[in-house]
Hints:
The structure holds 2 protein chains of 2 kinds. Chain A is α+β, with helices and mostly antiparallel strands. Chain A has helices at 2-15, 54-60, 130-145, and strands at residues 19-32, 35-40, 44-46, 50-52, 68-83, 91-100, 103-114, 123-124, 152-161, 167-188, 195-196. Chain A has one domain (32-196). Chain A is 19% helix and 50% strand. In chain A, the strands form 2 sheets. In chain A, strands 1, 2, 5, 8, 10 and 11 form a 6-stranded antiparallel β-sheet that branches. In chain A, strands 3, 4, 6, 7 and 9 form a 5-stranded antiparallel β-sheet that branches. Chain B is 9% helix and 54% strand. Chain B is built from 2 helices and 15 strands. Chain B has helices at 23-30, 35-53, and strands spanning 66-80, 87-91, 101-105, 114-117, 123-126, 134-147, 150-160, 167-178, 189-201, 205-220, 223-244, 247-256, 260-271, 274-282, 287-295. In chain B, the strands form 3 sheets. A 10-stranded antiparallel β-barrel of chain B has the order 1-6-7-8-9-10-11-13-14-15. The radius of gyration of chain B is 21 Å and the shape is elongated. Chains A and B meet through helix 1, strand 1, strand 5, strand 8 and helix 3 of A and helix 1, strand 1, strand 5 and strand 6 of B.
Amino acid sequence: MKRILxxxxxxxxxxxxxxxxxxxxxxxxxxxxxTFPINAxxxxxQSLPIPVxxxxxxxxxxxxxxxxxxxxxxxxxxxxxxxxxGNQVDSVKVTGIIIEAGVPQRIFxxxxxxxxxxxxxxxxxxxxxxxxxxxxxxxxxxxxxxTDNQPFAIQLSGDLMPSGRRLTADFKLVxxxxxxxxxxxxxxxLFSSGEKCGE
Amino acid sequence: xxxxxxxxxxxxxxxxxxxxxxxxxLENYVSKYTSTNGAGYMQPLADAFGGSLNSGFxxxxxxxxxxxxxxxxxxxxxxxxxxxxxxxxxxTESPFNPAQTASAPTVFGSGKGAAATGTGGTxxxxxxxxxxxxxxxxxxxxxxxxxLGTAATARFVELTVDDNIGKVKLFGFxxxxxxxxxFKNFPIDLAAGFWVQKFEAGNIIEANTKYxxxxxxxxxxxxxxxxxxxxxxxxxxxxYDYASSAGVDTIEFQLEAENSARFTVGAxxxxxxxxxxxxxxxxxQNVVALGLGFGF
Lengths: 199, 296
């Protein structure tokens, strides 16, 4: 009997580990891909500004109930061009701006982009402007945290190469951002080496 | 066989048979990665999970030539996560610019993640890990003998967790055959054994393990000291949804655990019908196994 009594707490230790709340840090990826239809026959082009509204961004990010957003970062900007029938332009020099309350700010500088077909690769934009990227970051963070609901717009413009030919193409600007959020979750006690909630 | 589905390893909170990992969290973490980073992130899981599954099979090498003996118990195997299993060299993924590498947490690493700064203040955030020092699992185990000095072992669990995970199933079997029965007055009990297992979490993940080796034991009164040397292998098929700049893709890859040669030392107490044992398994993945059961 004494031997059995010794075993009971051991069994309890094995089976009844319990649950504890721990803090987890997650990342949610947000991708927005506004498409700019471009038609130009002179040496330069300018797209219509495409508005970005808070509801679209909020719907694009999956933050679970109880998740506390800590920061939003812009990860990358990339451009995908798709030539349409009748296009005569080989490449363009393109820039992008963010327009907030009527005030433009450049988000990327002059990039030379080859006009491709449907299978053209996504081209990473390398001449990003820190002030414009930060403005974009702050707007997206405000939308996701629901502290800002004033829309902004993005507009592309540039020069045809060679000039004097007809450009007809869709430019898709792929903006990738990440939202960091914290969430308290219940996990088995045996897994409890992470941060406690409220630390 | 690879499964093209989301990765959600099973969670059995509060007194479950088979503790694995917080499922939804893991999916959230790894979905940031393509297969190159994903494999580096998940490799320690394959090592730890495989190491744990390949432990706790035996607690003696004594097998009678004939006669009925049965053991029914619970085996708990806890993989001890080493510091070098908590980070890996991760690469930023296109179209982030410029490409960089960073020391980032693995699935067992810090929960806080890492970051690389790119052009214009862009930031590539590497996800954190589950911040674990150990990975425990528990399974029921049955051992039946003996026929011609051979005993059979089986593990089986089948549970329905929830709609997302579905059924979690572990089936393993193997046999141990006495070698010392062929020698008169052999100083210790000696046996050879092999075990295979298959683990499935719904249509989510599949792991296959194999272990074979030699075991030895010495029994005095209620105490048995035992040890073993063996070779283990684990294959873990993983698939999950990857949130890329071009949309959502399914990422699939197979991981092989670094288990190879393993050594076991342990002790067992035979308290009438109650059997209690503990052993330590040395190898690329160290595992502590504890077992409690009833048998005769």
